[in-house]
Write a structure and sequence with these properties.
FMO-like; 3 strands; three-stranded parallel β-sheet; 33% helix; 15% strand; globular; 3 helices; 79 residues; alpha/beta
Length: 79
């Protein structure tokens, strides 16, 4: 079991509306007690605000395209 502070969903950021994956009822982000944000939300924040949000935190990045790799690298470099 791993404990994390929050999850970043990276499943599409090139648009105004985040693309959320479909989850089985009762097995999605609603069961996680921490914060769940989408890459679109992260990219709408000021860089300093993003740095403050991820500094010292354990984070899971869900996805494997450009935004997921960029965000995972940023999290690794800061922490």
């Amino acid at each position: 079991v791993h404990t994390v502070d929050f999850v970043i969903i990276c499943t599409g950021r090139y648009g105004d509306i985040p693309k959320w994956p479909l989850f089985v009822k009762g097995r999605g982000p609603e069961v996680f007690k921490g914060k769940v944000i989408h890459a679109v939300d992260l990219y709408s924040m000021e860089p300093k605000e993003v740095d403050n949000l991820i500094t010292g935190k354990r984070i899971v990045v869900v996805g494997f395209l450009k935004s997921a790799i960029d965000i995972a690298a940023k999290c690794a470099n800061i922490n």
